[in-house]
Amino acid sequence: MTHDPHSYARPHEARVTHVALDAAIDFEARRLRGRAVLHLDVAPGAAEVVLDTRRLHVHGVEDAEGRPLAFALGEPDPVLGRALRVALTPGTARVVVEYETDPEGDGLFWLRPEQTAGGRAPFVFSQGQAILTRSWLPTQDSVGLRQTYEARITVPEGLTAVMSAEHLTPEGVAVDGGRRFDFRMPQAIPTYLIALAAGDVAFRPVGARTGVFAESAVVERAREEFAELEGMLAAAESLAGPYRWGRADVLVAPPAFPFGGMENPRLTFVSPTLLAGDRSLTTVVAHELAHAWPGNLVTPATWNDFWLNEGFTVYLELRINEALYGPERAAMLEVYGHQALAGEIERLGADSPDTRLYLDLVGRDPAVAVTPVPYVKGAAFLRALEHAVGRERFDRWLRSWFDRNAFATVTTAQLARDLRENLFVGDAEAERRVDLDRWLYAPGLPDGAPRPTSAVLARVEARARAFAGGETPAHALETQGWSPQEWRHFLNVLPRQLPPERLRELDGAAGLSATENAEVKFAWLRLAVHARYEPALPALERFLTSQGRGKFVKPLYAALVASEWGAREARRIYRSARPLYHAAVAADLDALVR
Questions:
Q1: Which sequence positions are flagged as catalytic?
Q2: Which residue ranges form the domains of the chain, and what is each CATH number?
Q3: Model pTM?
């Protein structure tokens, strides 16, 4: 087994293979209370099993027959949390941990009714990636240790629990204190993908294997928005092979959800900012769905190999978009990605070790790896492979890679060996052109890396220059039928200091302040803030007080506080908006908006 520097586990001595959780959710106390039965594979002579915890309150540990087992919690580490060491008696194959979570724990996010779309019931959801499952479930929280699980979750009457597993009791079972929901995940998964949510949740089917969960107030909108889920799934299968998880449902989280999406198997969590009304922002769903192969099926052995998760996924996302919406849509997305990558390499420095695909994250929170580098540079590497050997040959290798490594963990070195043995075999010239070691282990982008272009975005840039230079009035821009990607590019390349009268003309012609598309509105509002266009302030305030996605709110507040005028507005808006934000977002903004 590859050593995982982000886990205390010693799996060569005793390894958790299955978790059976029986727990109740207490919204008033903001705690999950229960017992976790851990099934172990124990090496001969092993004296203890070592688990990962973070701000967990452990009340006791016993064996399967109820006999107490000695245990001790180690000293807390700011990244890893605390090791839980449980002494094993001869023949012990299961340990039972009685525990409860801390209200301020990192992995469960508690929302008050006013932070939800319906405003009538509380909501809770988990976020395990990268190493936060240990804050609500005592187990070996290592990306390289796959486990099966089952769960019985009790919630107050009138609420529903969902998990990244098979739903055995979709309607729940009445019990004292509320309603119990039962789940089973028979395929072994890394612990960061064990996911839980509970609240006012309703379900609507979309296709034979797909459907949407959402708050009752938005579930019909969600069903319409994600009506293409089944087609996305079929497109992904044509590239990567059969979908092996049964169902591919989506949970639309409340507005305070701070992320775009999270690829939990069988139940992807997504932001309600994707509900644009025209299915134009569903590329996020394509990305999370693609994770059913890289990440969920074939998992990095450690977070140093994070790019094996996200780089493959971005590549598949581009191919899914190409299959469903045409090559120009994929080209636009690829151009956007490379712009973000170029900006990140410039920020870090071309020689920074953090611009490598294979990273060294020892002693660091693996969350720092979430940059455009593993995502976009990883996808660019796969595109370089495709160009070197041709799409047909590359596609055969890609599908076989997932088949060979299904339900297993892989390393960057293992990938390099596989490429040499199965893709480049008999073709030394193709291997020379790609230069694997340069791509995988060196910083920056190699010379000759693919440089995507988009004819559509080039035309958009020409129109932006004509508008900014006064040659073309807003009403003559011919923007009918523009995609969000075109609008976003147009707004991003406009000069940051356009005169107010030009912005007023543009807003009047295109209705940007009133658009329901979150990506377009974000680009428009950021431009308006930089230009100090005060008529956009009401739209800005509505946007900042109606959703809490970090991708949007953090850059907008940062743009505001960059000027004395904007800082006053930021403080005013933040006073009313802060209770609506998730704690992780509010913590960052507290330091920014003073």
A1: 288, 375
A2: 1-102+128-189 (2.60.40.1730), 200-291 (3.30.2010.30), 298-441 (1.10.390.10), 482-592 (1.25.40.320)
A3: 0.95
